[in-house]
Write a structure and sequence with these properties.
The chain is mainly beta. It folds into three domains: about 110 residues, Sandwich (Immunoglobulin-like); about 100 residues, Immunoglobulin-like (Sandwich), CATH 2.60.40.3710; about 150 residues, L,D-transpeptidase catalytic domain-like. Strands 1, 2, 3, 4, 6 and 7 form a six-stranded antiparallel sheet that branches. A hairpin with a 5-residue loop joins strand 6 and strand 7. The chain is elongated, with a radius of gyration of 29 Å. The relative contact order is 0.13.
Length: about 400
Amino acid sequence: MTPHSSSSRRRPLRTRHTAAAGLAVLTVALTACSGGGDASAAGTADGKPRIAVNLAGSHAKAGGPVTVKLAEGRLKQVTVTDADGAELPGEIAANGASWTSGRVAAPGTSYKVRAVTDQGASAGRSFATAAPDQVNKVSLTPGKRSTVGIGQPLSITFDHPVENKAEVEKRLKVSTSNGTTGSWGWIKNYDGKDRVDWRPKEYWKSGTKVKLDARLNGVDSGDGGGWFVRDYATGFTVGRSQVVKVDLDSKTATLTRDGEKVRTLPMSAGTPGGQKASWGGTSVLMSKEGTINMRSETVGLSGSDSYDKMVDYSMRLTWSGMYAHAAPWNRAYFGNTNHSSGCVGMSDGDAGWLYRTAQIGDPFEVTGSGSKGAPEAGNGYGEWNLSWSDWRARSALA
């Protein structure tokens, strides 16, 4: 989706002010929740409590916390709920005179406020925030309850641009079963969309359980991005510790598990010295796509380099079109010459075995001469080609 220009910026939201200092004052008769008690001691004036809420009307501004203030006395409890009954968490100040929500008011949402004093008097108020002009949504990888390899980052791609990267990142909480050290890093996805990935300092440990709690509801993406209107969550488990080591010099691909060699496969990678060369560095197995139609024009090759083939056991390594797959037409070059159009080609039997054995998220480490360098971070999951310090520097909170 093409990012919106500045001409589509969100229109200012109208906030109705009905009291001094931007506070909407609510005057409600006391409701006794317990017998007796002096009205003046309950923080009242002329027998009526005075409560102020910073948001009012039907077009209140979203994106900020809700505050409730009591003119006199002390608050005992405040609840702010939306139409579905979900509450905004919050805390009463030490002096009991005010309450502030721990989360912001979401756009296009109706809220009810109920405040109870320490003398049992209660008051209510309602307001609604203005609807968003544009909504930003996200895509999460890996999927919920999936099992992935040790190189798979937690990845969030946004439908629209994110200018307020720090505000978004503050609301992304990652927890792991073993205290894994990691960091968010902002990158451009291969299609130009904003993306933020959480990468461990080193490959995940097998068996690690990972959870994401993205509390984005009510956050403004910034110019051209729109509002988030819901929270997101996912979780996954790290499977076997496997790495595929592709050696361009020996023309072999070796799968290791827990650091031990399992099987070495003769292969032929990309022809060195031009556009047909393979990517070097580390890529991550993104998807197993089975039998697919591969055409040369999708990777910018034409003329004598053109091809149009149905290819079996296709395993995607980059968005730009590098795969590991079966390549029986290239059998004369397996183990002795790199002579493909950029992919890692193997026999039907070897490619089938690797397809069944490899996991989504397994790293493919490509070494040796003749590559065209490491892919960019957004070309698949190329962030493993950055040092730990360089990756951490991509955090908006660094």
